Amino acid sequence: MTTACVGGGVLQWWTSGNMNTRKRIELNGCRSRGFLVGTTPIAKLTKNASLLMGPRTGRKMRKTFPVSPVMEWQDCSAKIEADVPASFAYDCYSDRESIPNWMSFISSVNVLEDKPDQSRWLLKYSVLGRDVEFSWMARNLQPIRNQKIHWRSLEGLPNRGAVRFFPKDSSSCKVELTVSYEIPQILSPVATALKPACERVLFLGLEKFAAYAKDSYQSKVA
C-alpha cells in the first residue's frame, strides 16, 4: 500500500510487491518518514512539499530573505481663504467625523470612544473604472489651539498631515492643508507627476470646507 500526506490529507493506494526497503528522507528541512514498496515510493509529504523528487543529495537549500524597498515621503499642499474667524475654522476642522462633508474622497472617519485622539479613516475613489479603497488608523498629535491640527497614521496607509490657520482679521482667515504619504522611492517619479492632481483634489476640498464653515458660522450668529 502506498500512502502520501498532501496538504494535510492522506491518499492511499495499493501496489504489487513487498516492502523491501525502508529509509528516512527530508523535505525542505523537515524530516518525514518514507518507505519504498517494490519500486514504488511511499512517502509522507510535508504541507509545504507538493512533489517528492527523491532522497536528499546533501545539498543545502539556499535561504532567501525579503528585501524592503527604500521609502520616502511625498508632500502635497493647498491653501484657501475662509470668511470665518480662525478660531471657528479651527473648531470646524477639529470635528474629524465631519471631514467627509468637504473631503469627498474620504468616505468616513470614526473616532474611537475609548481613545478620542485616535480615529479610523476610510478613503474611496475610482481609477480607470475601478473602485480603490484604503483605510488607516490615525492619531491626532498635540494641537496648537486655533492655529494647528496635525496627525500621523498608526497603521494602514502611511500618511501624516497638518492643517494650519492664519488670522487675516477678526472675521476671516487663511487655511493651509498639507498631506504627506509614504511610497517606495522607485515610484517617486510617478508620485511627482501626480502631485498637481493631488493638490487640486486638496484645493477643491478646502473650497468645500470654506463654504461649509461659512454656512455653519452664519447659522450660529444668526
Automatic annotation (TrEMBL):
It comes from Zostera marina (Eelgrass). Coiled coil: none annotated. This is Coenzyme Q-binding protein COQ10 START domain-containing protein. It comes from the Eukaryota. The lineage of its organism: Eukaryota, Viridiplantae, Streptophyta, Embryophyta, Tracheophyta. InterPro entries: COQ10_START (IPR005031), ORF3 (IPR047137), START-like_dom_sf (IPR023393). Pfam families: Polyketide_cyc. Residues 83-196 form the Coenzyme Q-binding protein COQ10 START domain.
